[in-house]
Amino acid sequence: MVLVQKMTTKPATIITVKDFGQHFNDRLMTLTAGSDEIILVFDTYKSDSLKQKTREKRRQGKDPVQYQIADDTSIKHIPMGHFLSHEKTKTDLTVYLAEATLKYNANSPKLVITSAAGRTRSNRSMQFDSNNHEEVDTLMISLAAAASQRCPEAQLVFFIPDTDVLVLAIAAYEKLCKNASMTMVSGTVEVGPIWRARARGREKAAA
After folding, report:
1. Which residues fall within 8 angstroms of residue 67, CB to CB, at 6 or more apart?
2. Where on the tree of life does the source sit, at the highest rank (predicted)?
3. Neighbours of 37 (CB within 10 A)
4. Which residues pair with 159 in a beta bridge?
5. Angle, nearest 10°, between helix axes 136-150 and 164-171?
């Protein structure tokens, strides 16, 4: 959703949801141009969660509008903040973008994995267990750990907006590729040196 939020100022060429999906995929491929494997992870929006109750309070009694997510849904004159105000719209959009990304990269040499609404899929014949993660932060670490088992010597890069995932990565560092880093707003940070110098081993990292 961070990548979606960066697209709040839509180009004039985006008229429908299908246009938005294609533009989203283009942005994703540009961001990950040097990668052999891409893992796209979305938040899960649960109606009975504490986060949902917090979102409802922020709306201050204003009812959000739910939009149908389909290829031909027109969003040309809808501000993105208004378009994404309803949780069901956001849920449906994450599923749509995950499916669109796999479709656009069906024949790509890159391995593309998407996870949305508790379902993880890829553009290859791989099997994934269902998950109950609501937070993208913990789900990202879980999928990164699985990817690290497949390619332990690979360079692993997280694209994140804040430090939450960095804290989790330090705790889970022994399960990740040793060449793991975070690309954040403030710059790129390597996980290993922090784990060694600040956490000083397994117990402090877990704490």
Report:
1. 73, 75, 78, 83, 86, 89
2. Eukaryota
3. 15
4. 183
5. 40
Angle at 165 between CA 81 and CA 52, to 5 degrees: 40
CB atoms within 10 A of CB 126: 11
pLDDT tens for 142-198 read 999 999 999 999 999 999 877 889 999 999 999 999 999 999 878 899 999 988 876
**How far, in Å, CA of 161 to CA of 178, rounded?**
22
**Type of residue numbered 101:** T
In degrees and rounded to multiples of 5, residue 12 shows phi and psi of -65, -20
Which residue in the block uniquely carries the two structure tokens 């975070």?
Answer: 182
* DSSP H/E element including 183: strand 179-184
Cβ–Cβ under 8 Å, residues 16 and 118: no
Q: How far is CA 190 from CA 96, 139, 157, 195, in A?
A: 33, 20, 9, 9
Instruction: Characterize the bridge pairing of strands 179-184 and 111-116.
Output: unpaired
Helices 17-31 & 87-104 angle (0-180, nearest 10): 60
Burial class (CB in 10 A: 0-12, 13-18, 19+), 68: exposed
Distance CA 163, CA 166 (A): 5
Amino acid (1-letter code) at residue 2: V
**Which residue in 46, 45, 86, 79 sits closest to 63, CA to CA?**
86
What is the Cα–Cα distance from 32 to 37, expressed in whole angstroms?
9
